[in-house]
Design a protein that fits this description.
mainly alpha
């Protein structure tokens, strides 16, 4: 096996891996999982706002109790 044949086989291997990755990433089985992952950043923001708001509510309740 000469160097040119080896380079050709490596190129075919890389091409096959590329095609496998593209098919895997665009398969319908993975779509829901990828959509959930993509939207998770927005869910974290909503949870952070709710947590921040609940802390603010607790602080305001404590201030009103201290003033009474």
């Amino acid at each position: 096996m000469d160097y040119g044949t080896l380079r050709g086989l490596i190129a075919l291997l890389i091409l096959a891996l590329f095609i496998i990755i593209v098919v895997w990433s665009y398969s319908k089985k993975r779509k829901e999982s990828f959509d959930d992952i993509a939207n998770s950043i927005f869910e974290e923001d909503k949870n952070a706002k709710v947590t921040k708001q609940s802390h603010l509510d607790k602080d305001s309740k404590q201030e009103t109790n201290n003033n009474v």
